[in-house]
Amino acid sequence: MIEVKRVYDESASTDGTRVLVDRLWPRGVAKADADFEWEKVVAPSDALRMWYAHIPERFEEFSRRYRGELTDAERTAALERLSGIARKGTLTLLTATKDPEHSQAAVLQQVIAERV
Length: 116
What we know:
By secondary structure, this protein is of the alpha/beta class. It has four helices and four strands, in the order E-E-E-H-H-H-E-H. InterPro entries: YeaO-like.
């Protein structure tokens, strides 16, 4: 099972392994208090992230471009690690965005589900 949640949401016992998939550390979250891993290598490039700007009308094109970015060797290795976690139990992808349904975490959820 692969879930997507905001990093600011309270953790739950059903979350399994929690992994932040944003390139930037979320504001207001102390690294010392983090109850999750950080896999920033799978985040979209700064250029793509800035182009998208969380404009929902651009989500389909963002998703297409982002999937293309996920094919390099470093990101593929990170995706395989996340897929391995999902095969063994619940994986919760965390993001700081206010709209998780239109975020890189939602795209990653689909990509990882295709690999599991």
